[in-house]
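Need a sequence for this fold. Nothing fancy.
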């Protein structure tokens, strides 16, 4: 995923720069490293926009991923993410944009410092009046609000969905990691996941007590919709996905590459806070918007 590699590289680059003391009246003042966060965000956003404008001729849109970066025979199956987990192919655009069940659960993983905020800014989504940003595997619900519940904790939220997975990651995210949601660094701090430490040069670094929290419930419905027994509402997201996922079907690498070269990339733009997507094969090439309104409690059926 180009964007994630770019974000990681920029964060490492900034984190590795020593913070020089400033001499004022013979006393040394060291700049608080946390003040670098906004600088990191600006660098990430600027670099993403520059690269995306190179990738296509419509600056009003932003590309979601670069399908033509697929290598080898990924269309026929590949090992994912260095985890020795076999994925039988690249999922279709329809599978990439399926709409999740209203309530599901799985692991929560954290974004690094500043990345969620930078992603929200890049997508033109405000994090005002929400707890934080989050990322879900599916892209259709970017812009939606969700609530999260950790085991033995109260509901938290709302959070705004500002990011999603790429086609060649979603299968592994759900079925290898059992990943339901990725959270921002601010939320990870609240949950006690990271710690900060100062290296030999005086630069603050980030370490992790834990990189995953299990059995986190994700809900598109506000907490007041539920009774105390949550088990009756939670969908088994792994089985749900397996029952619905479909894969691109190509006769070989040449056909696969020709398909991605002949078809435009998935494109994204934001109009008044509503995400719009231009997806190959959808809506005769016209941009579409998915429903991101908060569902009514009445959609629940209590068994």
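Here you go.
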């Amino acid at each position: 995923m180009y964007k994630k590699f770019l974000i990681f590289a920029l964060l490492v680059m900034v984190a590795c720069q020593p913070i020089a003391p400033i001499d004022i009246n013979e006393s040394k003042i060291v700049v608080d490293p946390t003040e670098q966060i906004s600088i990191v965000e600006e660098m990430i956003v600027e670099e993403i926009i520059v690269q995306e404008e190179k990738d296509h001729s419509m600056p009003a849109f932003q590309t979601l991923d670069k399908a033509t970066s697929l290598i080898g025979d990924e269309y026929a199956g590949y090992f994912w993410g260095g985890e020795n987990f076999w994925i039988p192919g690249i999922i279709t655009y329809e599978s990439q944009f399926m709409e999740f069940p209203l309530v599901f659960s799985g692991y929560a993983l954290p974004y690094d410092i500043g990345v969620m905020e930078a992603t929200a800014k890049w997508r033109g989504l405000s994090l005002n009046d929400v707890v934080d940003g989050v990322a879900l595997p599916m892209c259709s619900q970017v812009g939606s609000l969700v609530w999260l519940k950790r085991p033995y904790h109260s509901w938290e939220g709302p959070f705004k969905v500002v990011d999603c997975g790429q086609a060649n990651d979603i299968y592994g995210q759900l079925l290898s990691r059992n990943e339901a949601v990725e959270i921002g660094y601010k939320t990870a701090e609240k949950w006690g996941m990271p710690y900060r430490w100062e290296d030999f040069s005086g630069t603050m670094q980030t370490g992790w007590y834990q990189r995953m929290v299990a059995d986190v419930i994700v809900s598109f419905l506000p907490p007041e919709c539920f009774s105390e027994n949550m088990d009756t509402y939670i969908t088994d997201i792994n089985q749900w996905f397996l029952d619905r996922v479909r894969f691109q079907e190509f006769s070989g690498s040449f056909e696969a590459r020709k398909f991605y070269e002949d078809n435009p990339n998935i494109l994204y733009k934001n109009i008044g806070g509503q995400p719009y997507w231009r997806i190959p094969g959808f809506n005769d090439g016209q941009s579409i918007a998915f429903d991101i309104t908060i569902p009514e409690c009445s959609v629940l059926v209590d068994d």
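For context: The CA atoms of residues 6 and 163 lie 15 Å apart.
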